[in-house]
Structure formats: C-alpha cells, structure tokens
Design goal:
This protein has 745 residues and is an alpha+beta fold. 18% of the residues lie in helices and 33% in strands. A hairpin with a 5-residue loop joins strand 1 and strand 2. The N and C termini lie far apart (56 Å).
Length: 745
C-alpha cells in the first residue's frame, strides 16, 4: 500500500513538478496581470464532465489548447485515456453564428450548467446556445435546429429516456418536442410571469443546489415537475447604467422573514393533458421542496424541508391516484448541513445522508418496491462510521452492490475516493495519493474521472478504472521560471478544545524581528473549507505575489465552517461574527508568538462575500488591523436571502438581537483602519444595497472609506480585465497602508 502511494506521487510529480523556492531563489516576479490572464499561468483544468450514456467516453469543453482549441468539445476514451476533438468550436460557431452572451456564460460557470448534453443512444448531442437548441449528429458531423426557447441557461433541455423527444422551458412553461413529427407540445400554459413550471428560481438554485425542477418518468410517458409561485416574493432592482437609457432587471429575491416561493409537484402526460397535483403537506410560501424524482414509472418521491431548517420529511406518491404518504422523517437539533441529495437504487433501496451521529455518514434504507405506499421506509444499516465526514457520493455500482464516495477520513484537509459494499463490507480507499480528488463516475461505474491536486501540486486530470489504473489526459501548464514557496500547515485550538487548521505563507528571506506585515485572508462562513491539501489556483498565486512583496499571508478555518463534524459546524448557529473572530484572533496570536518576524502593528485583513463581511466585522470589533479590503460583503443580514440566512440565524422576528448584533452595518461607527470596499453593480447574490447601506452609516458617523465599483459585474467580478484591476487595487491597498512609514514607524 505505501509503495503504491509513493509510486503514484512520484509519477504525478514527474508530470508537472512545481519547484519550491529557497531563500535566495525567488524566480520570476509575479504580476497581477500574469496571474489573472485568461486561463491563468497553470491553465484552466477541464470541468463539468459529461459521460456518454454507454460509458465509453467522457467529454468536456476545452478551456485551453492542450487538446484542440478553447470551446472544442473534447472526448476521452474510457478504456485508454486517448483524448481527441469530438466537435470543433469552429463547426459550432458556423452553426450558431453567435456565442452565448457574457451573462449566460457567467451563469453556466457559476452553477455548473452545461451548454450541451448527450442523447440516450450516445449518437447525438444537443447544444443550447442563445435560446436555440441544436441536435448534432456525431456520425455525420451535422446539426439541425430543434427548437427556440427564447432563454439562455435556464431553459433546461433534456432528452426523454427513450430518446424520441426533447423537453425544455419556454416562457416559464414546460414544452416537449417530438423529434419525429417536430410537434411542439406545451404541457403547461400559464401566462403569469411569477408562475414557473419546471423552471428553477434564483433562491432554489443558489441555496438549495437545485439544477432542474422537472424529470421524465423512466418509461418516457409522464413528467414530474415543480411549479413555483413567486407572486408574493419581493423584488430587487438590478440596474445596468452602461446604456444611454439605463435598464432595470427586477429580481425575485426573498429576504429573511419574507414569503418564499410557493411550491407544488405535478404530474403531466408527455403528450399533454391536465396536471395531477400531488397534495404534499407543505406550508406554502414557507417550506421547501429541494429534491424530487421517480421511484418507478408510477411513483415519485419528494423531499420537504421545513422553513425552520430542522425538520425534513420524505414522501412517496402514486402518480395515478395522487395518494401521498410520509416515508421517512428526520429532525436536527439546530439545522441540516445542506445534504439534500437522496440516491434511489434498485430493489427498493436508497441512500440517505445524515449527521445524526455527529458526523455526516451514509445510511441505507429499504421500502416495498412492489407497493411503496404500504409502509414507511426502514433503516437497513448505517454504511459508514467514524469521526470523519462523507463529502460526496460519486455513484453506485448496483450490479456489484458497491457505493463509491469521497471522504476526509485520512485527514480533515483531504478528500479521497473510497468504496464500500451495500452490505457494509469491503470498505477500501481507491485514491492512490494524498490531496483532494474530484470524482466523476461513469454511468456503469467501471471508470471515473479524477481531477486531483495537492497543496504544491497543480491539478492533473486522469481517467481511471476501478482496479486503480489511471491515464492522465490533462496536466497543468509548467510554471517556467516561477518558484513557489510552500506554506506552513499548522493546527491550533479553539477555546472549546476544537482543533483549528491554518496555513501561513512567509517570505523566506525576512527573519528580522517585526520585519514582515501580516495579511489575514479568511472566508469564515458556513459550508466552506479553505485550508485544504489542494492547489489553490490563482488565489494561491496571488498569495505568492504578496509574499514576494514582503507580506505574510494567513488562512484559518474557524468554527462554523464546513467539512468538519456537526459540533464544529453548528458553531455558526445564531452566531455570525463573535465565535468566528475569536478563533481567527486565537490563531493570529499563535503565529505572532511562533514567528517573531511578523509585525503585530502592521496587520491587514481581506475577504470576499462572507469573507468580505468578516473583514468589516473584524475592523469594527478589533483595533488591531491597519488596513482591509472587503469584496461583495453582506452588511445587514436582513438584506441577504431567506434560505441561507434563516438556516443559521433563524427568523428575524424570533432572533432580532442576533440580527442586530451580527450585522456590521450597526457597527460602522467603530471602524478602525483604512478600508477599501469593492462591489459589482450587477451582483444578484449579495446586492449593492448592502454596500450602499454601509456607506450611509459611514457618512452618518463621519468615517472615511474608499469604494471601487465594477459595472455590470456579478458576485464573482469575473474576467481578466476586471480581476487584474481588482487585485492590483488590493495589492496597492496593502502596499500603501502596511509599509513601515504608513503604519506610523
């Protein structure tokens, strides 16, 4: 076992080894433009892999020229790992005439929405471009227009299981197109813009991870869909000031305590007709239906999450009679950790994820497959056990009775692929070297794509079989002339004894006492993990740039963050600030004690999103930071969305003091240090309203600040020009304020 780990590590190191610097070997100097050029210095790894239904190959859209050109559809043979261009971008461009616009591309990248998909016979692809669907014949290399949806990435096209039809969303209604007769049948015909039939709304997509709200029955005769009623959901105006006549997009966006979208599941025949509504006991405009699907061609399952985020229930329904029954209930002491996926198997079995024993593990349940309406589901066994987290279910080989999953059993900062039998036996780790492995399993569970990296090893992507044979088909570009310094990985203790993990990057040549300013760069919020044995991409390279400029950079994962046990994550319950800052300061003080070259009088803090909020919280609740940068911060938790905020802070009428204390807008008068605020004006996630309300309080309190706006940019402020401009501003903020003269020395 140890020998195989070593051989695998040496093999990948030989593919693309990254040199670590020595104190007198800094290599080429990093620039922000180098880091944020399109694709980045190491190249952009493939992502959003799609396996062909016959499992013979896996495809992806190329992001560089390693195989073909950017935006080519590349195919990788599962048996031998050979990569080639399946559909060249030039052919697609000739078909489309125009590419998806920036907003559509941003949405697809943000939520992992593919612009193409496979037909069930593995002989055709359907491409979705600027509201037009094209069927591409792989044998002929030709495409024909199938339908116009009038939408971008929200039109959600699908083949029926028998391949005879294509379904999609148009004008908030569900359509089915017969590929033989070309008949376009509207299965729903509502006219209200606030009724979404099978369409995913913003808050379900962002906070519940929903990517589709309709599903074909296995026999292709019916479709189950979720109808969402947003009529009572308040709107937020997103303004585009670039045109001569500004435009406003009214986004439906429920804030804490607001009405949520109403939701109900209906069953409709694929050739049209009346919808059979399933009367699931939900509190309309309060509760959620985050997942649903088909048990068989005559029964569906539905998962209901109550608005308090501590009660979840699984229902079965008969699609012929409309009868509904509860099959499983689960209650959490505080909240559920976003583990909503249910994996239904043959022979009346399903996998259920729960942290009921204190860690996230897999549980096997059984039900009567012949008549699911007769009895509750029963627990067969808990499949996984231990003081570690199951991070994902990659898939199940039902023929062999084997579950493939990733976990951090080896180290809380790792993610490795494992297998275990449905009988609870045969547990084995499949990953051959330590780090983080992102897995995409083939439909027949005989192969998988492994996108793997470690702290100092950029990603390499391989296709592997279950015996452990892997063939790389994409490697990160070598960093010719650049040298990387390895951060110090360390651990500390929170006041309650919980282990905290940190990562400190130090300039190797600076050892004099108090010679190095320290920049703290946490995320801090729930369900995220930043200190991992994983290559950090362009963010990590920006840390290297800061290090070359003489700064030390500290990352710490505080209590309340993700991929740890239930107690660790539940620290965020009714607490968005105090416990997180306490942990960060404990680790700051630890590194100041252990590394005397760090200067406690020259410390900065920066972060994005929750991390941006954290910047403001730290600079208004501590006087130890000279400068900070907050990007896209939530400044008032009453302004963020209902699902996320209520999960942790509860309803504002019930926890008014928590909202008051943890919203940084109420602490603006106590700001210490020099602050740069950054906001994209088109941000549909953390609205510009947050920044404006914070500025109003700064003005009222006569507190100085600096503001940088990025027109039209969303939460990610994406694109090489914007990123280069932004990260140069971050660098300048710390260069200006953390140098000895700026810090008052």
């Amino acid at each position: 076992m140890r020998r195989s780990f070593l051989l695998a590590a040496l093999f990948l190191a030989g593919l693309n080894s990254v040199a670590q610097t020595t104190p007198h070997d800094q290599g080429k100097a990093w620039t922000v433009a180098d880091i944020w050029r399109a694709g980045g210095p190491t190249g952009r790894p493939p992502h959003d892999y799609l396996w062909s239904p016959d499992s013979g190959s896996v495809t992806y859209l190329s992001a560089d020229s390693e195989h073909g050109q950017p935006d080519d559809v590349v195919t990788v043979n599962a048996a031998n790992g050979a990569a080639s261009v399946l559909v060249p971008e030039t052919r697609l461009a000739a078909i489309y005439g125009v590419k998806n616009d920036e907003r559509d591309r941003d949405h697809r990248a943000r939520y992992g929405v593919s612009s193409y998909l496979w037909s069930p016979d593995s002989k055709h692809l359907i491409f979705d471009n600027t509201g037009t669907l094209w069927i591409y014949d792989l044998s002929k290399g030709t495409a024909s227009e199938a339908a116009k949806t009038g939408a971008g990435s929200g039109d959600d096209p699908k083949f029926s299981p028998d391949g005879a039809s294509v379904s999609f969303i148009r004008d908030h209604n569900l359509h089915v197109l017969s590929l033989d007769s070309k008949h376009d049948a509207a299965l729903t015909d509502t006219t209200e813009a606030t009724l979404l039939n099978g369409e995913v709304d913003w808050v379900y997509e962002e906070e519940l991870g929903v990517r589709s709200n309709y599903f074909w029955a296995p026999d292709s005769k019916h479709i189950a869909y979720l109808q969402m009623d947003e009529a009572t959901v308040p709107t937020y105006p997103i303004t585009d000031w670039i045109p001569t006549h500004s435009t406003v997009d009214q986004q439906r966006y429920p804030q804490p305590g607001d009405p949520n979208p109403g939701a109900r599941v209906g069953i409709v025949a694929a050739n049209g007709g009346d919808t059979l509504w399933l009367h699931v006991p939900v509190s309309q405009h309060n509760d959620y239906i985050p997942r649903f699907g088909w048990l068989d061609s005559h029964h569906v399952w539905m998962e209901v999450l109550r608005r308090d985020h501590s009660h979840m229930e699984l229902f079965f329904a008969d699609t012929e009679t409309g009868a509904v029954r509860s099959a499983l209930k689960e209650t959490a002491n505080k909240f559920f950790d976003e583990a909503y996926d249910v994996h239904f198997l043959q022979h009346g079995q399903f996998l259920w994820s729960s942290w009921r024993d204190g860690n996230t593990h897999l549980y096997l349940y059984r039900y009567d497959a012949n008549d699911p309406m007769t009895a509750d589901a029963t627990l067969a066994r808990q499949l996984t056990h231990g003081d570690w987290e199951v991070l994902s279910v990659a898939g199940v080989d039902e023929k062999q009775g084997t579950v493939y999953y990733t976990s951090n059993e080896t180290d809380p900062r790792e993610e490795m692929l494992w297998q275990i039998g449905l009988d609870g036996n045969g547990k084995k780790m499949l990953s051959r070297f330590h780090g983080v492995h992102r897995i995409t399993l083939s439909p027949d569970a005989t192969h998988y794509v492994d996108s793997a990296s470690s702290l100092m090893q950029p990603p390499a992507v391989s296709v592997c079989d279950m015996a452990g044979a892997c063939t790389p088909f994409w490697n990160s570009h070598p960093l010719d002339g650049y040298k990387l310094v390895a951060p110090v990985m360390f651990a500390g203790k929170a006041v309650d004894g919980e282990t905290l993990y940190g990562e400190l990057l130090l300039p190797p040549d600076l050892h004099s006492t108090a010679s190095v300013p320290l920049i703290v760069n946490p995320y801090g919020g729930p369900h995220a993990q930043t200190v991992r044995d994983e290559f950090g991409g362009q963010g990590f390279l920006f840390d290297q740039l800061l290090m070359q400029h003489g700064f030390a950079v500290l990352h710490v994962d505080n209590r309340g963050m993700g991929n740890r046990d239930r107690t660790f994550q539940e620290a965020a319950y009714r607490d968005f600030g105090p416990v997180q800052l306490q942990d960060q300061m404990a680790m700051v003080d630890q590194v100041l004690r252990e590394y005397p070259q760090l200067d406690a009088r020259r410390m900065g803090w920066w972060g994005w999103s929750w991390g941006g909020t954290f910047t403001l919280y730290a600079m208004t609740h501590s006087d130890r930071f000279v400068a900070g940068v907050c990007v896209a911060p939530v400044t008032n938790w009453r302004l963020y969305d209902s699902i996320y905020t209520e999960r942790y802070l509860g309803l504002p009428d019930e926890t008014q003091q928590t909202y008051q204390d943890d919203s940084v807008v109420n602490s603006a008068a106590h700001l210490h240090g020099n602050l740069l605020m950054v906001q994209g004006t088109g941000d549909d996630n953390v609205h510009m309203q947050n920044t404006i309300q914070m500025i109003q309080q700064f003005v009222t309190a006569d507190v100085s600040y600096r503001l940088m706006l990025y027109p039209r940019k969303t939460h990610s402020i994406a694109g090489a020009p914007a990123r280069t401009h932004l990260f140069n501003a971050i660098l300048q903020q710390f260069e200006t304020n953390l140098r000895p003269s700026a810090a008052g020395e």
